[in-house]
Structures are given as C-alpha cells and as structure tokens.
Design brief:
It is a single chain. With 212 residues, the protein is α/β, with parallel strands linked by helices. Helices cover 49% and strands 16% of the residues. It contains nine helices and seven strands; from the N terminus they run H-H-H-E-H-E-H-E-H-E-E-H-H-E-H-E. It has helices at residues 2-12, 15-21, 28-39, 51-65, 88-100, 116-122, 148-172, 177-183, 192-197, and strands at 41-44, 77-83, 105-114, 126-129, 134-137, 188-190, 203-204.
Length: 212
C-alpha cells in the first residue's frame, strides 16, 4: 500500500502533470462561438453594436472562401436574431455585407427583433420567424443634445437617412407607400402572421430541421 501511494505521489510530482495543471482551458462561450462559426451561424442576442462589424467581415471572409463554388452549392449563412435594436452604423455595415453576399443568407427571428434588429432581418432574401417572434419597426431617433446649429445639421442628415430607410423597407416588403405613411411615426409592433401578410417575413418555422 505504501508503494502504491509513493507511485501516485511521484506521478503528481512529475513535470508532465504539473504542466497539465497549468493549462488554461478556453471559456465555454468561446467554444460555442467557434462551433457556431464552423456551422456559419451568427447569433445576435444583445443590442446591435460594433460586434456586427466583425460579423460583416466574417461574411466577406465566407464569400472569399466560396469564390470558386457555384452559388447553389455554397454552405448557407444563417443569422439568428433576438435584439431590442441599437447602433445604426453597425446595423448598416452588417446590412451592406448581407446585400453584397453571393453566398445565400437566411435571417431567423428567435424572439423579439426591434428597430435595428428588424432592419437586419429584412436585409436577407429568406427571413424566418418562430411562432412566438415579435417585430417592431420605426424611424430612427437622434438622441442628440447639442447647440442649435448642430441639431439643425443633424436633423437634415437624419431626414435623409430616414428617407433611405423608408426606401429600404418598401423595397424589401409588400408595404405600400400609403401604409408606410400610416405607421412611419409609430413604434409598429407585428405578430408573425402580420409579418407574412406584409412581406416582412418569408416564412414561419414549423420544424426544428428548418433551422439547421
């Protein structure tokens, strides 16, 4: 018994074991992140921020990898969304990447997709909702506090930007200019069936297999 204990103690004292105890294992969230990237899944479960610029770059990278593959044979990119909205510049960068992508992209509303999240959702050709998803579309807000001249300048910019947003929404939905005028000054909340009616979504997920 003494000999066995000695052997075990010697094992724990070995340089190899000591080295293993000093290893820093990756965080589970990081492992999950790289697993999603391997599947070409992007998961946005927070406010829209500069992380979306990283996602845009990743979409460019996937397109570069696919450059010699026929479009209908490329591995699809899927963007899962659950967000209250957020930064407009980051939103626009991701939308640009989605629009430029030749590799097919599907956006999937996991729960709520409000404001900037709804705009990202609209940018893909295929747009899927869960049966419990909720969508909110509205104009951008400035939130600016400054002197009068800067407010005037920014108001002019925001007016042009809102006009571009209007064109984008009309182009990517079945909304008529008349209907848009009715809702443009509101926070317009929609249920899945309404999203289908207005062409905001292309389908409602009925089977988990559709997500993978």
């Amino acid at each position: 018994m003494t000999i066995k204990n000695f052997e075990i103690d010697s094992l724990y004292d070995s340089d190899e074991i000591k080295g293993l105890t000093k290893l820093i294992l990756p965080e589970p969230d990081l492992i999950d992140y790289y697993n999603r990237l391997a599947k070409r899944h992007i998961f946005i479960n927070d406010y829209i921020d500069e992380t979306c610029v990283d996602y845009a770059y990743q979409i460019f990278q996937w397109n570069f990898e696919d450059r010699n593959i026929e479009i209908n044979q490329r591995k699809k990119i899927k963007i899962f969304l659950h967000t209250d909205g957020g930064d407009v510049s980051a939103m626009n960068t991701l939308i640009s990447a989605i629009n430029l992508s030749k590799t097919p992209i599907t956006t999937i509303a996991m729960g709520k997709i409000f404001s900037a999240g709804a705009m990202i959702f609209l940018s893909a050709p295929e747009r899927l909702l869960l049966s419990t998803s909720r969508v909110m579309i509205h104009k951008g807000s400035s939130g600016i506090i400054s002197d009068v001249n800067k407010i005037i300048d920014y108001s002019k910019f925001l007016e042009k930007d809102n006009e571009l947003s209007k064109e984008f929404i009309l182009k990517n939905t079945k909304l008529t200019p008349k209907k848009y005028k009715e809702i443009e000054d509101k926070d317009w909340y929609l249920f899945p069936s309404e999203c289908i009616d207005y062409g905001i979504a292309t389908g409602i997920v009925e089977s988990i297999e559709e997500l993978f």
